[in-house]
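Quick illustration, no need to memorize.
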Amino acid sequence: MIRYMIVQNVLHRPLRTLITAIAVAVEVAMVIMVVGLTSGLLLENAKRVEGVGADIMVQPPSASVFLAFSGAPMPIAIGDKLKQLDYVQAVAPVLVQFNSVNGLDVVFGIDPSSFAQVSNGFVFHSGRDLQNPNDILVDDIYAKAKKVKTGQTMHILDHDFHVAGVVEHGKGARLFVFLSTLQEMAGAHDKASIFYIKCDRTDHTPAVMDEVRQLLPRYEVRPLKDFISLMTSSNLPGLGAFISVMIGIAVVIGFLVIFLSMYTTVIERTREIGVLKSLGASKGYIVRVILSETTLLCVVGAAAGIGLSFLLRTVFIRLFPALSILITANWILRASAIAILGGLLGACYPAWIASRKDPVEALAYE
C-alpha cells in the first residue's frame, strides 16, 4: 500500500517531478562526464606513450609524466652515452612542444631514423615520411578531426608546415616534425625533452634502468610498460582538486533542488499529513514516506543521467573525434550513489518538518 501511495504522490505533480528528475540527471551526468573526460584523456595519452614501442623513457629531473608539460633541458649528447650502455638496442631523442593555438596538441620533434628504430616505424595511411625541414606528419585521428589531407599546408607554432603524410595513431603524439626544425623554432639547440630507449630484450629493461640511474642519478627513468598506472589525476597538479570541486558543485545542485522540491511538497501536503497522523501514522512513517519519494525521484533521475552521459559522449566524439571520454561502471555507480545520498540529505529537513506537524493544526490548514 505504501509503495502505491509513494508512486502516486510522485506522479501527482508531474511537472515538479520532471524538473527534479532532470536536475538529478544533470548532477549525475556532470560527475560522469567530468571524470570520464579527464580519465579518457589520461588513458589515451598513456596508450600513445606506450605505443611508441620503447622500453624505457628518460626525462629531466622532476619532470612530469605528462609530456605536454615537458621542457627541453637535456643535452642531446646524452643520447650517445645511453647508446653505449649494455643491452641498449636503440635510443631516440624527442623534443616536445605544446601547441594550444588550434587545439591542445603535443608536437614531437623526432629524428626519423632513430625514432623508427625504437618504434618500428609509422604505418602510413597516405603520403610519405619526413624528408624536408618543413614537413610534418599527422596521425589519422588528427587528420579526421581537423580535416587535414596529405599535401596541405598547416600553420602551427607560428610556422607553415607541409603535410607529408597521414600515419596510424598511437606513436606518442599526433603531430611529428624534424627534431632539428623544432629545436630551431623553440630555441632549444642540441636539446631534447625525452630519450626513448629500446632494449635488445624486454627482460633486460631493469638492468638498463639501473645503468641509466647510475649514469644520470637525478633524472627520471620510467619503464613504459607500467606507464598507464602513472597516468592518474593525483599525478597532475590541480586535476584531483578540480574533479573534487566539480563533484561538490554537482552535489550542491542536487541537494538544493531536492530540498526545495520536498520542502514545497510538505507545505502543499499539510492537510494530507494531518489526515495520516490523525489515522495513527507515526513520525517514523511520515519520514519514511518523504524519504522514499525522494529516493524514487533520485533513482529515476540517476537513470536518466546515465543515459544522458552516453548520449553526450556520442555527440562530443562525433563533433571532436580526437576527444576521449571514458565512462566506467565504477563511476556510474559512484555518481548515482552521490546523487541519491545528496538527495536524501536534502530531504531530511522537510521530512523532519513533516513528522513534527500537529494533526489538529494540519487538518485546519488552508
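The first helix runs from residue 2 to 12.
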